[in-house]
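User: What would this chain look like folded?
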Amino acid sequence: MRERWLRYRRRFGSRRTIVKDLRAGIVLGVESVPDGLAAGLLAGVNPLYGLNAYIVGTLFGAVATGSVFMTVQATGAMAVIVADVPEIRGPQAAGAMATMTIMAGIAMLALGLAGLGRLVRFIPAAVLIGFVNAVAVNIVLSQLENLTGFASASGNRLTRAVDTLLHLGQVSWLSVLVGAVTVLLILVLERTRIGALSMVVGIVVGSCLVLLLPEGSVSTISDVAEVERSIPQLSLPDFSLILALLVPALSLALVGLVQGAAISGSIPNPDGRYPNASADFRGQGIANIATGLLQGMPVGGSMSATALSRAAGARSASANLIAGIVMVLIVLLFAPLIGYIAMPALAGLLIIIGVRTFKPEQIVMVLKTGSVQIAVFLVTFALTLIIPLQYAVLTGVGLAVILHIARQSNRVRVKRWVFEPGGGLPWETAPPARLGAGETVILTPYGSLFFASADSFRQQLPTPDADASDAFVIVRLRGTDELGVTFLTMLRTYAKELRAAGATLMVAGVGPRVSAQLSATGVREILGEENVFVERPRLGDATLDAVAEAARRTTGED
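Assistant: Here's the prediction, encoded as structure tokens.
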């Protein structure tokens, strides 16, 4: 019982921290209301889905994540992915949103329960940089309609942006004025003492400006949604849409987990320890399942909201609980006023977020790291702009894996070891192209010996002459934990090729796992038990044993 109480105290603070948590929670809660509505707008759904996601995600994330400070809310990247899912529009929209969000939550929860938080490190940085920066562009482009009042019928965001430029005569300049005033106020006020609430003040003032303009000249939230004084209601999933929503749900889970992992790895808990990424996976999964059931859109760890909470003085998870409660109170007390928020004002807020999400320095870094990274970045960036994001994410990861395999397979290098007659350390030279009679060649591979590298490895092995009697090729395998079927098959074929010419293949420094593989696959029988030398504690002993055995057979000594 005492241990549980201490754990509770570490997570939710004490009387000494409650004042700072209260202040941070109020700031985060007030700021999150327009931000949540903007997230729904960005996703192309009822803005209340975004606000509900902020409320439910923040509350459940405060309780369930391993990170004390992580704020779980709808993020810009996840909102743009949602916007590209056709099923979330039309008569089945509510069921589709619930299904997709719950599925993403189940995927996150399953990975967390399996302890697979470490998997995010296998996603190449070039993919993430290409995706995030293209998302930043998408955020800006997606808000041109709400900013200008011109609804383009063109295909994707890029072509709609071009179409808008070609029809400036049909733009509502009053809408542009409201958006511009909002952006200007936010940029000015964030440099003042009310900086933490600059977005709220900017949205309020921009929306009040609409009251001075002709009625109906600028759209507001009440034009697209009815805001009532109520907490999020139950929303049941539509199981008939599971297959159609599988890819976007997995993409949402992937993006949400990667963004959350950035928080896990950069913001320690109050005890100074960094949270377990798998625990954060579980917490985000639970938050998504709850959000999906309560009329919300997908959520994940939000770096901007977490940073805002910390900057406002948060000392424990109580700050996020208070923020969730503040959002609920604002909805219950001021719901009718939310309907007056101007859509161009929210668009201006999102454009600021999009511009600040774009990181040119990251792009420059990728462009300096090599052709493979550049290719992965460019393909991911381009696909994210022109195809639905859920496919762009998975395609970028798949391309990175393929290019990595291709690059690693070409990085296998084989060197020949040559020992001087007096002993001492060996010299490294290029392996010979041919193997003649009576020669002993010691070869050391560098690189990953997996299936794709087998052909490259074989091309660097010496080809035996027609008569290569009493010749030996000794391949060092020390440090190799496992060989694939392709590589084992290559060794078997090469051993037979040498034997046909009167030569012998030996393997030295064989570890327990590789030794078991040689036996199980029959390669050991082809090589001959006497040609397999297991690793020994001192480096090089197994190789010297093979060299001595080759010399003994060549000279015919017992």
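The chain has a mean pLDDT of 87. If you want, I can go into more detail on any region.
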